[in-house]
Amino acid sequence: MEQDLLIYNTLSKKKEVFKPITPGYAGMYVCGPTVYGHAHLGHSRPAITFDVVFRYLQHIGYKVRYVRNITDVGHLVADADEGEDKIAKKAKTDMLEPMEVVQTYTNSYHRNMDQLNVLHPSIEPTASGHIIEQIELVRKLLEKGYAYENNGSVYFDVEKYAQNYDYGKLSGRKIEDLIVNTRELEGQDEKRSSLDFALWKKAQPEHIMRWPSPWSNGFPGWHTECIAMGTKYLGERFDIHGGGMDLLFPHHEAEIAQSCASLGHESVNYWMHNNMITINGQKMGKSLGNFITLDEFFSGAHPLVEKAYSPMTIRFFILQAHYRSTLDFSNEALQAAEKGLDRLLKAVEAIEKIKPTGESTVDVALLEEKCYAAMNDDFNTPIVIANLFDGVRMINSLNDGKEKIDAEGLGKLMNIYQVFVFDILGLKAEEAETGKNDVLKNIVDLLLNLRIEAKVKKDWATADKIRNELIALGFEIKDKKDGFEWELKS
C-alpha cells in the first residue's frame, strides 16, 4: 500500500517524507525502560507511541524490525556519571541479586505492556547481555582518539569531538554555551571536562555489578548501550530512533557523538521523540508525590486516582493527544477518555446492525481518505480519532434510518473501523467480567421481553413501570421495530 508518510525529524526540526534505507524494510530502535521499579504512566507514552508507529508501518506494507532495549546496568543515579547504578542500588536495598530485581520488574513491565495491548518488539536486547559489544565500541573510540582512560575508567572527550563534529546538533545546544555554563563538579577530577561522559566505569569494591575489560573490572556507562545494540541489530545506518523527549540530551546527543566518532557518520536517519506526561501541570516525580504506577491506575490504589481506570482507557487517553504534544493527566481527562472510548466501541458494535440498501447517501471513501491522511501526517492519532467520531455520527444516522448505505459501502465502513480502531490504534474491547455481565444482560433482556408481552396485552401500566424503573437505574432503552436496544449509562 503506497503511502507518502511524513515524519517529524527532531534532528532537522521539520517533517520529512519517510524514505527507508532499504525499500520495503524499516529498522526502528526505541529506548525502553530502566527496570529498577514498576512501570509508571510515563513509561506508557513511548511504548504506545512507537507501538502505533510499528503497527502503521507494517499496515502500509513495510517489513519492520523493531528493537526496544531493556536498561538493566549502567544507568547511574545522575547523568554526571556519579552515584550508584540504579539496579545495584535497588538490589542492595531489597537484599536481592541484581538480576532478581531486573527479572521482577521486567516481568512487571511486560505484563503492563500486554494490558495496554502493546505489541512485542522484534528484538528486546538487554544492556547486560551486550557487554562485549559495548567494550568493543569503547575500544574503537579510544583507537580513534575520541576517548581517554583514567584510573580504569574511560570517558568520551566531548571538546575534542566538537573540533570535528557538531556536538549539540540534535538538542540545539551550542558547545560554547555548554562549556561556559557547566561548572566543574566535585569528585569529577578523573574527567578532562565536566562535559565528558563515562563510557566505562571502574567498579568500586562495594559495586556488585561488574565485568572484566581491558581497563578494569567495571561496568558500561549508560550512553554506550543503545548505539552498540542499535547498530548490532539494525546496521551501521538505520531508519528510526525513538524515545522520550527527556532522553534528547544528553543520552541521544551522546549516541550521535559515539556513532560519528566510531564510524565516521551518523547511524540514524529519523529521530523521533514523544513529549512528556504531566500531572495537574507538574512533571511527574517521586519527590513530588505524584508518581503513579500503571498498576495503581488499573486498581485505583493511589490518592491522586479517583477510581480504577482500565488499560484501554489509558491507551485511548494517550492517543487523544499528538505524540509531540505535552499531555496533562487529570481524573477529569481520564473519565472523559473513558466515555469517549465507550462511545467509539459501541459504534463499532452498532455497524453490525446496519442493514445495507441498494443505494448510498454517505461518503465512506472520504472518511477512509481522511484517516489515512491523518496517519500519514506524522502519525496524528487525535485527528484520526476525530475522523472516527465523525464516522460515529454516520453510523448512528444509518442505524436510525436517516441515511442509507449499499453493501459495498457497508463492507468498507466495517473495514475502516477494524483497521483504524483495532489494528492501528491498537484499541480493543475491554475484557468483560463474563459472569456478572452475562447475568445482567439476561436479567435486563428478560424484563424488556416481559415489557413487550405487557404491551401486546395492552397492560400499559406494567410496560411503563418496567421502562421507568430501568431508566431510573441508569439504563437507556430504545424501542425498535424488531425488538429493543439498551445500554447502561456510565
Describe this entry's structure for a reader:
The chain has helices at 41-59, 86-94, 98-115, 131-144, 158-162, 175-181, 224-234, 248-263, 294-299, 311-319, 331-351, 364-376, 381-399, 407-424, 434-456, 460-472, and strands at 6-9, 14-17, 25-30, 63-68, 147-150, 153-156, 197-202, 218-220, 238-244, 268-274, 277-279, 282-283, 327-329, 475-480, 483-488. With 490 residues, the protein is α/β, with parallel strands linked by helices. It has three domains: 6-274, HUPs (Rossmann fold, 3-Layer(aba) Sandwich); 279-424, Anticodon-binding domain of a subclass of class I aminoacyl-tRNA synthetases (Four Helix Bundle (Hemerythrin (Met), subunit A), Up-down Bundle), CATH 1.20.120.640; 434-488, no CATH class. The strands form five sheets. The protein has a four-stranded parallel beta sheet, sandwiched between helices. It is elongated, with a radius of gyration of 27 Å. It starts with 5 loop residues before the first strand and ends with a strand.
How many helical elements? 16
Q: Describe the main β-sheet briefly.
A: 4 strands, parallel
What percentage of residues falls in helices of 4 or more residues?
40-55%
Q: Give the low-pLDDT segments.
A: none
Second CATH tier, the architecture of the largest domain? 3-Layer(aba) Sandwich
- Evaluate the radius of gyration: 27 Å
CATH topology of the largest domain: Rossmann fold
Shape descriptor: elongated
Assign the structural class, choosing from mainly alpha, mainly beta, alpha/beta, alpha+beta, or little secondary structure: alpha/beta
Query: Main sheet: which strands, in order across?
Result: 4-3-9-10
| Mean pLDDT, all residues | 91
CATH class of the largest domain: Alpha Beta
Number of domains: 3
Number of β-strand runs: 15
CATH superfamily placement of the largest domain: HUPs
Amino- and carboxy-terminal Cα gap: 40 Å
Percent range for β-strand residues: 5-15%
